[in-house]
Amino acid sequence: MPNLSEQQIIRIKKLNQLRKLGINPFPPEEYFITNTIFNIKKNFREKDPISIAGRLIRLRILGKASFGEMKDHTGCIQIYFNKNHFYSEKMEKEESYNIFLKKLIDIGDIIGIKGNLFKTKMNEITIHVHRLTILSKSLRPLPQVKIDKKNKKIYDAFSNTEQRYRMRYVDLIVNDHVRNIFLKRTRIIREIRNFLDHKGYLEVDTPILQSIPGGAVARPFITYHNSLGIPLYLRIANELYLKRLIIGGFHGVYEFSKNFRNEGMDRIHNPEFTVLELYVAYKDYYWMMKFTEELLKCIYKKVQKEDKDILIEKNRINFKTPFPRIPILDSIQKNTGFNLIDMEEKELRKVCKKLHIEIEENIKMSKAKMIEKIFEEKCEKNYINPTFIIDFPIEMSPLTKRHRQNKNLSERFELLINGQEIANSYSELNDPIDQLDRFREQIKLSEKNNTDESMFLDKDFIRSLEFGMPPTAGIGIGIDRLVMLFTQKSSIQEVLFFPQMRPEKK
């Protein structure tokens, strides 16, 4: 058996021995379960008959009696075997204990057990196992994590980051805290959905495959539809479709959207990510700031067990409202000393050089990109508590209304928490003539800058605006980063079941 470890070879031999004994190690029948481990412990009654299933995670053979531990999706429980009261299918009691339990069962096997409850002298709830059925034979050994409770040490933990992300299934088996991250993720999404439903907004689905990747400036993934004979793109944003629904007469719509961007990867970026997008008619970005505060306070109260600050590494975060509102150019001036108001491209290049921000000399770069880079590198990390960065230069916001008091600015905000952008919001541009001009300007910039990151011209969206879109406030909230915040993680890979990875080396 080439390329198999010694342990795998031994386990395959055990598999074949089970089959020779007439035992199917992967039985097709339903296994009847009376309870979960959590409920068994919560509602303990001495001598209660029990039938449960789960994974064997520890086994200590002691002669005539043995102890083990098994876990299901709700927790772990101790199990006890006695030679005189234990049997398995198709075997006598003596054979069951000596052959089946001692020689053919392995840690990692998924088993069903029937027995009765009791408490040991150490007052630990335990199942006295009378019958054991193997439900799935494990052919690879699990990492054996050892916990020294007295000295508060963990040995042989499955902690290698790359291994954990590649083999999330093993990570979930042996590291209970990882399971808790994803349970909390589900709860956060549920609370957001409940909050929005209570407000009367409609959850919708919009296309993932799009003929035009609109709604953002990003590099898309490209595929091809054979029947239609056209290229299609995995969506980079769902914004333009949701606005079409507002035009169609819905008052408020939202979607938990899987978006895809063919760009770099780091601790806060994954090429596939989840965003909540919400659009509400007859509102503006001032209203959306208050709404966002209300939503985050609600999640904080429902998800956090204690009313205290969130601690991520050395950063302590609280959710006291109202959140500060700081114009982006004021933030840049405060953090760099440079006033960028009315600066042209040449002057911005000089500022970038003085701030040691890398800008390639021979490549054209828009004012918007340079301002964005200055803010990201010199300002963003300084906002730990929730802060609204507002009133972006108009060049940075092609889908946003011009500011009602300054035509060179836009009615836009970004919510920053723990030095990261969590949300992006606009008073949505609903003037079709202005929107068409902005699209064309973006296309010119991308051609001038020779970049494959550009805003595509969506003619159907312009046509939809020509039928009239009411004043609308929209927001996109990064769900993965929000989960990072509430689970106190600093890497996006920790809150994705299966983050994108480089191919595994042979």
Automatic annotation (TrEMBL):
Residues 185-503 form the Aminoacyl-transfer RNA synthetases class-II family profile domain. Its EC number is 6.1.1.6. Gene3D superfamilies: Bira Bifunctional Protein, Domain 2, Nucleic acid-binding proteins. Keywords: Aminoacyl-tRNA synthetase, ATP-binding, Cytoplasm, Ligase, Magnesium, Metal-binding, Nucleotide-binding, Protein biosynthesis. It is found in: Cytoplasm. Its main location: cytoplasm. It is an enzyme of class 6 (ligase). Belongs to the class-II aminoacyl-tRNA synthetase family. Homodimer. This is Lysine--tRNA ligase.
